[in-house]
Amino acid sequence: MLAVAVLAAGKGTRMKSDLPKVLQPLAGSTLVERVLASCEHLHPERRLLIVGHQAERVESTLAAHGGLEFVLQQPQNGTGHAVQQLLEPLRGFTGQLLLLNGDVPLLRPETLEHLLEQHRNSGAAVTLLSARLEDPSGYGRVVADANGAVSAIVEHRDCSEEQRRNTLTNAGIYCFDWPKLAAVLPLLASDNDQGELYLTDTVAMLSPAMHLEVADADELIGINDRLQLAQCEAVLQERLRRHWMAEGVSFSDPSSCTLSEGTRFGRDVVVEPQCHFRGDNQIASGCRIGPGSLIENSRLGEAVEVLFSVLRDAEVEQGCVIGPYAQLRAGAHLGAGSRIGNFVEVKNSRLGEGVKANHLSYLGDADLGDGVNVGAGTVTANYDGVRKHRTAIGAGSKTGANSTLVAPIRLGEQVTVAAGSTLTEDVPAGALAFGRARQVVKEGRG
Ligand code: UD1
Ligand code: MG
Questions:
Q1: Are the CB atoms for 321 and 303 separated by under 8 Å?
Q2: Which of 221, 273, 307, 393 has the fewest CB atoms within 10 Å, i.e. the most exposed one?
Q3: For residue 260, how far is its CA from the centre of ligand 2 (angstroms)?
Q4: Ligand 1 and 22: CB distance under 6 A
Q5: The ligand 1 atom nearest the CA atom of 224
């Protein structure tokens, strides 16, 4: 029987943030969600989350995670005090308790599997993860012998000079035999520099206590401040880029690009410098992205090119060319082979195949048929101050430069709109529409 508990009640004072530390985002998901995800595959019988500081906010963020038991720690008097709050909900539980700090987001699921396996095989009362860090400042130090038996954990601030030279650090990830931990939890005292109850003090009270040293120390980075948050982000980004390079994606300047876990690439995608992918994206094979683009929650078909542009909640079929300096917003759908050029914005609009809108246009709430040519400066005036209205432009139509189409309005197929027109009425197929004052020239009056 396995129970998992995550400590997420602390204030996170060192972050200097209004947001609780465990809700800080890392590559698009919060620290605590990452910690929960790292132990999902273990299928624990119980999943408990200890909340305290801004408990409601933490609970509401995690509301969608089914089967979580929230345990309130009020006030927050240290990690040992936090785990004391489990005595009641885990009364009568006789299995193992996997306990994780809520601020250790880079753990690999396999590492937790090893921890459980070693714990079960050795029959220890507690097994904890440790790592050798080049700079262990701030972390608790693990006092252990050559066989991996732990006699104590000493917090950095309580260490002597000599103890500080010990680089074996405590990760804040433990597997306890719950009845044995439950027996010693009430014995904790707050005789330390912070005057708190330390969970780490239980280790000296339990025997045998063992540690498992993790080879990749990055996994155990605990986030207490913004510097560590940035370090974790860098590690995560490096993992993601390495993964996609191994899958056939080229990055010409990898470290200048950021990815999200929800972004999927086909083969032979080329990502040029300064490109950022957020949320869930599908980028099909042969696309060329960048330099300088942001793509969020979008789907790109094969061989799409995007240059210095922003795409959000957009769908782009194969062979489209976007940019430089274009913006596709929510509900933009581009048919195959379309071209969207500089300073063109498309929102909630469906464009057919081979549409060209190359310069300085706004297409909002519009439906464009195949092969429509949108002249420079064409604007769909979709908003009357109260409601949005749609514009329809039939296949093969052309709008002249600086056309304003006041919606609701429908242009049939093969329509030509004269440059500088403001149209307020529908135009039938095949017609030429003017909507402007005739030019007057008065000689000699210049
Ligand atoms: C802790 C460990 C330290 C270890 C380090 C690893 C203790 C005493 N020290 O130190 O040995 O090297 O993690 O990252 O455990 N929390 C509560 N309630 C509280 C206090 C904290 O739920 O009253 C939660 C926090 O939200 C956080 C976790 O416990 O998720 C760890 O707390 P934190 O203050 O970050 O401990 P560290 O000083 O990092
Ligand atoms: Mg910490």
A1: no
A2: 273
A3: 24
A4: yes
A5: 35
What is the pairing mode between strands 416-417 and 398-399?
parallel
The verdict on the CB of residue 172 being under 6 Å from ligand 1 is: yes
Please report the domains of the chain, with CATH numbers, ordered by start residue.
Answer: 2-226 (3.90.550.10), 249-433 (2.160.10.10)
**Any atom of ligand 1 within 6 Å of the Cβ of 199:** yes
Q: Is 222 in the pocket of ligand 1 (CB under 6 A)?
A: yes
Residue whose tokens read 């089914």 = 66
Three-point CA angle 423, 424, 426, nearest 5°: 90
Task: Measure 243 CA to ligand 2 centroid, in angstroms.
Answer: 28
* Structure tokens belonging to residue 43: 């299928």
pLDDT of residue 290: 96
- Cβ atoms of 399 and 376 closer than 8 Å: no
Sign of CA dihedral 54, 60, 64, 66: positive
Task: Give the percent of the chain with pLDDT over 90.
Answer: 98
pLDDT tens column, 119-172 = 999 999 999 999 999 999 999 999 999 999 999 999 999 999 999 999 999 999
> Which residues are paired to 363 by β-bridges?
346
186 sits in which H/E element:
none
pLDDT at 313: 98
Name the residue with tokens 């596709």: 328
The conformation of residue 387, written as its DSSP 8-state character, comes to -
Distance CA 375, CA 400 (A): 5
Catalytic residues: 359
Q: Please state, in angstroms and rounded to a whole number, the distance separating the CA atoms of residues 238 and 381.
A: 45
pTM of the complete model: 0.88
Q: Considering every ligand atom, which ligand is closest to the CA of 171? A: 1
| 50 Cα to the center of ligand 2, angstroms | 15
- Tell me the mean pLDDT in the region 334-344: 98
The amino acid that residue 271 corresponds to is V
Question: Is the pLDDT assigned to residue 66 strictly greater than 90?
Answer: no
Contact 45, 3 (CB under 8 A): yes
* pLDDT tens by residue, 219-252: 999 999 999 999 999 999 999 999 999 999 999 9
pLDDT digits (tens, 9 = 90+) for 195-226: 999 999 999 999 999 999 999 999 999 999 99
In 55-189 the beta strands, taken as DSSP E runs, fall at 68-72, 96-101, 126-132, 141-144, 150-154, 168-177
Q: What is the CA radius of gyration of the chain?
A: 30
